[in-house]
Amino acid sequence: MQRLGGVGALAAQSQLDAALGLLCDLGMSRVLRHKPWLRKRAARRKVFPRGIDLGQARPDAAAGMKEMKLREGAAAPGFTAPANGGGEVSLSQFRGQAVVLYFYPKDNTPGCNREACGFRDAHDEITARGAVVLGVSADSAARHDKFIDKFGLPFALVADGDKSICEAYGVWGDKSFMGRTFLGIKRRTFLIDADGVIRKIWPKVKVATHAAEVLAALDEL
User: Fold this and answer.
1) What pLDDT, in 10s, does the model give residues 49-70?
2) Would you please indicate which residues are annotated as catalytic (active-site) residues?
3) What pLDDT, on a 0 to 100 scale, did the predictor assign at position 97?
4) Which CATH superfamily is domain 80-219 in?
5) Which of its termini does the chain have fewer beta carbons within 10 Å around, N or C?
6) Which tens digits make up the pLDDT trace of 126-177?
7) Which DSSP state fits 126?
8) Is 136 helix (H, G, I), strand (E, B) or coil?
9) What is the pLDDT of residue 36?
10) What's phi and psi for 106, nearest 5 deg?
11) Where are the domains of the chain?
């Protein structure tokens, strides 16, 4: 087998690193660390959990889906949905307060854990600024309960099982991985002011610094 060298090796490693970063969000990081053969297979065949092989994914799966393109200054779409603890949450119940509405791919995956814990650690500072935090994913309310208990999260998590909230905010749609396209939740945060207006959107979230960025934006409201 021919070995790659120089620029070719760097390009191949860069591609594998990008693949592994996405697989971390999908909960595969621990498996890949301890199974080098699976690392190679993931890079070559784009293997995902539960037997999903992106080599068989439809590149145009979401081509016909109509996304709502929200912009800063637009009214935040309202919603009522199940949440942790067995109750429901409506965006309208927080009118008069700023809302940090953050969408994330999945409970108990590395990037989502770190993002949630960042909001947990900054929660007192966020509430001191008169704001509330709401997390949204497609996980069930029961899974949210376990996620909250595991990390001691002091804010509500919304269960968007039918993806209707994600679609309204334009975060459910095409995600790309090594040249293939599949459907998923994009990591994105919306800062909504006390009047229900979207004041800031983070289309590409860096989980390590995100809570600090949200605090700074709250200071500017």
Assistant:
1) 433 333 333 333 333 334 447 9
2) 112
3) 97
4) Glutaredoxin (3.40.30.10)
5) N
6) 999 999 999 999 999 999 999 999 999 999 999 999 999 999 999 998 887 7
7) H
8) strand
9) 54
10) -165, 140
11) 7-56, 80-219
* Residue ranges of E strands in the chain: 80-82, 88-90, 98-103, 131-137, 156-159, 172-177, 180-185, 188-192, 198-202
d(CA 41, CA 14): 16
Which residue is it, tokens 């409506």?
Answer: 90
What is the per-residue pLDDT for 71? 95
Q: Do the Cβ atoms of 99 and 106 come closer than 8 Å?
A: no
Tokens of 166: 């994600």
SS (H, E, C) 70-88: CCCCCECCCCEEEEHHHCE
C-beta of residue 198 within 8 angstroms of C-beta of residue 169: no
- Letter string b/e over residues 176-208, b meaning 16 or more CB atoms within 10 A of that residue's CB: ebbebbbebbbbbbbbbbeebebbbebeebebe
